[in-house]
What does this fold into?
Amino acid sequence: MNSIFADKVYSRSKIMKNRALKRLIYSLTFVVCIFILPSFSINGEPKQDTTANRYRMKTIVVDAGHGGHTGAKGSYSTEEQVTLALALKLQKAIEKEVPGVKVVMTRTTPAGVGLQARSDIANAAKGDLFISLHCNSLADKIITVHGKKKRVPNQSGRGVLELVYRYGRDNEEAAALRENLFEEEGSKDVQAMLDPANLILLNEFKKKYRKNSIMFASMVNDEFVQVDGRPSDGVIEQGILVLCHTAMPSILIETGYINNPKDEDYLNSEDGQNEIVASIIRAIQKYKATLEQPQ
It folds into this structure.
């Protein structure tokens, strides 16, 4: 009886060992296939996978600055009108010239939209790029005529200017990033937000978004200057609320000085608006191609 029982135990143990050995062989074979087979084509040459996990730009948020009878004014036009016209043209141009990219607008009417609301729209859309369109203006000058001070328009400003977020409102930017990265569907997991790994992740996103913002702003400026021949004040860093509250690469474009007669005419002309939009489109295409190229 003991001998029979021992034989059964031995047989069972042998079967289990055989099964374990088979599982080990299958597992090792599977691992080898994963690491070796995809690396080679049929003819034995190395095969590069250039599509897996590659970044794709999906959403661009276009913000027509001001609205609701706010913003700068020229002799016959307002920033509210000009930026809306440019934004609507830019929307159509992106949909036509940048396939596969969705456009989200912060406003499509003259009605005003608050600064925080603009950021909220962009963040809710999970935008990959935020472009805010504005018109510049200079404050009046005070001059002295016959001993009396007199206020006169300062029409010396000409051309474009691109603004990007400047360090200094870090807490506000971090709050926007935390909301997008760690607060899904309104939940607020404080532990998750304070986790060292997540704080490092936040830092890396801040650096990446800032770097990409500067890169895109420089591309836009190059198109305005080198292709259109427009004067430019270049790319400048400022602590602007609408930029630091958007959790994505963001720039603000001052498309021209609306209180300068020549710039105002350009900003209101069909040719001027088309030229501005075309320059932004070329910059978007270059920026997109740069980010989407295989690593």
In short: The first strand starts at residue 59 and ends at 64. Strands lie at 59-64, 102-105, 129-136, 141-145, 148-152, 160-165, 232-238, 250-257.
